[in-house]
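Worked Example 4.2. Consider the chain below.
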Amino acid sequence: MNKKILITGASRGIGKATAIFFAKKGYDLVLVSRTESDLKAVALECNSLGVKVDYVLADLSEVDKVKELVIHLQNRFPTIDTLVLNAGISTSVTFEDNSMENIKRELDINYLTPATIIKEYIPVLKKANGGNIICISSFSAIVPFPGNSSYAATKAALYSLCTSLKIELDP
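Applying the procedure from the previous section yields the following structure tokens:
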């Protein structure tokens, strides 16, 4: 049986490239994104590479619904071996000019959603005797630049979480 990888934000950019990369390596995929037409196109492209591809439409900005999504994913695909948590957004606005609504949206999508998914999948990965959690972050998590302060803060939080989890989960 092929290893199965879950990829969020899989319909464009890094998520799409990651899906194609793993499909070329022979991994089965579960793709998650909110734009059906783009997601379906990526799924078809990966499927043409000879792997099994499923996709699930989800708006990951609704953190209160992410736990429900994870339960749905775990019931439908009980053998996920690797999480690639890629979904993210940037408002590209200075902190002073940004709204708290935009800042919260970045925090939800860039940090709270991946944190929720990880929290729900840790027992599953442990039960399967291991697995991988890959979080796509940004260089701005370490070296922020003007016009992206809230984005940088969310990516720094994600980086810190992953670094801490490496220590906690390593054994």
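The mean pLDDT is 94. The beta strands are 4-8, 28-33, 53-57, 82-85, 132-135. Compare this with Example 4.1 before moving on.
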